[in-house]
Amino acid sequence: MKTTSLFLFASLLFFQCANATIEGEDELIEVSDKILDNLIKNDFEAARSDFNDQMTAALQAQQLKEVWNGLSTQLGSYQSKGDVTTDTIQGYRVVYTILKFEQSPFKLKVVFDDADKVAGLFLVPTNAK
């Protein structure tokens, strides 16, 4: 009986953790999608509209343009958006979006601060965390 109760408790705990979502997940995914949409439209200034002050100062529209265009040069044109996942890392909420390019997929990683502003924006290989 004790073993069965422990197993049920562990199973429930695993199920709850596996299905846990980060706070405000839907809104953060919307912001991440908006950034991607603006990158696709080459509207790099608009892509920065949800950045926090530090990100706004650190990443200018021209730099964002160079990174996005460089990625397209290396991987071919952008094709479509794939799976979206979320995580919490060291207190920051993170949205990952798989980006499908002609030659290879890549991952958009958008990191949010406590005020739901973008505190980090990364374009990384799909196997990176």
UniProtKB/TrEMBL annotation:
Q: Which UniProt keywords apply?
A: Signal
Give yes or no: UniProt keyword Transmembrane.
no
Q: Which segment of the chain is annotated as a signal peptide?
A: 1-20
Per UniProt, residues of the DUF3887 domain are: 32-121
Superkingdom, taxonomy of origin? Bacteria
Q: Which organism is it from?
A: Reichenbachiella ulvae
Q: What is the lineage of its organism?
A: Bacteria, Pseudomonadati, Bacteroidota, Cytophagia, Cytophagales
The protein depicted here goes by the name DUF3887 domain-containing protein
| The keyword Magnesium appears for this protein | no
